Known about the structure:
The structure holds 3 protein chains of 3 kinds.
Chain A: H1 4-24, H2 39-44, H3 51-72, E1 76-78, E2 84-86, H4 89-96, H5 104-111
Chain B: H1 5-29, H2 33-37, E1 49-54, H3 60-73, E2 89-93, H4 94-97, H5 108-112, E3 114-118, H6 126-130, E4 136-138, E5 144-146, H7 156-160, E6 167-168, E7 198-199, H8 205-208, H9 215-223, E8 228-232, H10 239-246, E9 249-250, E10 262-265
Parallel strand pairs in B: 1-10
Antiparallel strand pairs in B: 1-8, 2-3, 4-5, 6-7, 9-10
Helix pairs in contact in B: 3-9
Chain C: H1 10-36, H2 51-64, H3 67-76, H4 85-106, H5 115-118, H6 125-153, H7 159-184, H8 197-223, H9 230-261, H10 264-274, H11 284-302, H12 304-307, H13 310-337, H14 352-384
Helix pairs in contact in C: 1-14, 2-4, 2-7, 2-8, 2-13, 3-7, 4-6, 4-14, 6-7, 6-14, 7-8, 8-9, 8-13, 9-10, 9-11, 9-13, 10-13, 11-13
Amino acid sequence: MYDGGKIITGLVIGVGLLLFPVFYNAGKASKAPEAVLTEKAKAAQQCVEPISFMKTEHMKMLDEWRQSVVRDDQRYYKSSGGKVYYKGLQTTCMDCHSNKSKFCDQCHDYMGVDPYCWECHIEPKENQ
Amino acid sequence: MAMDRREFLKIAGLSALVGMGGKAGFELLAPGAVEAALKDVPLAAGKKWGMALDVSLLDEGVMDACIEACHIHNNVPYIGNPKEEIKWIWKETYDHAFPGQENEYLAETFKEKHFLLLCNHCTNPPCCRVCPTKATWKREDGIVMMDMHRCIGCRFCMAACPYGARSFNWGDPRKAPKELNPGFPTNTEFPTRSMGVVEKCTFCAERLAKGQYPACVEAAAKVKANALIFGDLDDPKSEVRTALGKRYSIRRKPELGTGPNIFYMI
Amino acid sequence: MLDKALKGSPTYWGWVVILLGLIGAGFGFYLYQFSEGLKITGMSRDVSWGFYIGQLTYFVGVAASGVMVVLPYYLHDYKAFGRITILGEFLAVASIVMCGLFVMVDLGNLPRMLNIILYPNPSSILFWDMIVLNVYMLLNLVIGWNVLSAEKKGVPYPGWVKVLIYISIPWAFSIHTVTAFLYAGIPGRHYWLTAIMAARFLASAFASGPALLILLCLIVRKVTRFDPGKEQIHTLGSIVTYAMILNVFFFSLELFTAFYSQIPGHMHSIVYLFAGLDGHSKLVPWMWTAAFFAFVALLLLIIPATRRKTDVLALACVCVIIATWIDKGFGLVIGGFVPNPFDRVFEYWPTFPEIMISVGVWATGFFVLTILYKVAASVKEEVAA
């Protein structure tokens, strides 16, 4: 192979760098996320939408909410169950899920997701 | 099957473009839930919000109350230096509030007096014309609104505003000096902003949606009635139109054609 | 052809390494700005645009100047310029790269940059500026690369390139007109609210761009075996002369309107820049330096005896660049913001991190320029052999 030495060396370094995260974390298993509901959330029995929907769609729903609230002044949401909610991350969602670190962060941290909502929206104060 | 390298690259490139663009194009063009919701009529429909300030009633106490109420409700931080300060509503002397109306022989009371300045929610706002992302736009009810989710921080609106009504978050507002901002954020029902976006008075749009007056109007009313008169300029029977019909009023830089909707009743 | 940029003398590589070092330093400072915010610059609530936008404006002008080589050659058959159209086109590419980077480092929220494409606002001049600048860069890159490539192979370039060339000529005028429109339609800023802004921009562009091109040609002549040509350089010199005359003339027209009408709004910014206002006079020495260099440049350029000497022409070009850079890259933006809408003076001065980030952007632009010019010169050397 022409310039074979350089190519093989380059490949080893490149692939090594690429696979570094795998080697670094080898043998360590992350704890599965355990989302804890607050008493208020348990009492409500259901979130704005059913849990299966919220798990997969809450990001899209929040994005649609923020567009419609800020840009169209549509501040109320009629859920599929007929109940009307005020569209507000801080005021509605976090009212029930006020234990962000034990609820939202559990899955987010596990998935390596860092939503920037909290740069502006105020996190609920948790009693540590 | 003779295909040379050039032909192959052309086909590959085109396929990649279609592959990448196709999905995005489908999502962009497909009707979404937002469009469907547009059929609802917002609470403030048919209104043209504006405000009249009764200059004779506005003393330092009232103005300070307004500024404090606004900054508390909207989590506006005190940065402590004029370079980076953020202000949604503030005081200015006559010469600086109405440059172009200078008057050497102006009555002493007016020379020393402070005027309350805020975003004029212009009828023909230059800031909305220049915003490249429509992060600021004029709503149907007259409010020049801010979408903090979309603002890219280009500050063109700040250059375009002839009234200096807009502020930029030069740093992280949550890192503002703690001594100047005890208890920040002061309103946990309302978000703060992040670093790198422009902000200004929004006529408390979220309060209007609940049927409440803007924070400054409510605060002023507690100290002195009728100092700030907020209402629908399109309704000839509204309080604000009645007041404007009785007294001489001026606006800031009307010759620029922006159509400011903040009136100063002298 | 890009491989030609990988073979060079130690001087070439030394220059490239220096540029890479400056780019790295600039990038480091940019990371600092990204984490702390734009408060680390000298910009403020009252002067909300500063050095970055000033540099953007200046380099759009330099980019537009490529047309001053392309137009005579393709529309008027001035065969001599055929040698150096590639240098003008590649300078345009490098300049637009710098423009784009200056916008990016100026944005408060860079990750949202694509919002201008996702949620466009056609009434915003910034939207159109983004389009025309990017298209112009692509035009010049595609045209330049294809023409050079054809020259290397000794064949005529394909016909569709000619179409692009004809488009690029009015497009060059449009990029600087649109950039001028960023300023010329803003109701509250009286220094900018003038119809002649676009004309001033074009005049100063066609002075500063070809001036830089002349200096680059002289450098190319020195460090490579490709000689752009004495006739080419001196024709460019004539172009710089007329453009600089127009530039200074247009500015003096502004002075007349402001000071004969005696309208405070028109006068105040100019007074601030050249004499100081309310005791603030940071920019005064700079503006008079610009005026001095403009005067010297005009003197050296207008007198044929001095203009015809290549060394003196080079000096005149340096003077043109200094004068136009101060006027457009600095005075223009600051003058628009002072005094502020409340008739108060808040001054602006770039901070050290701001300047280092700008150095990083300049270095990136000159890096692109170096690579492209190396390719062009190598091809020209090869063809001549």
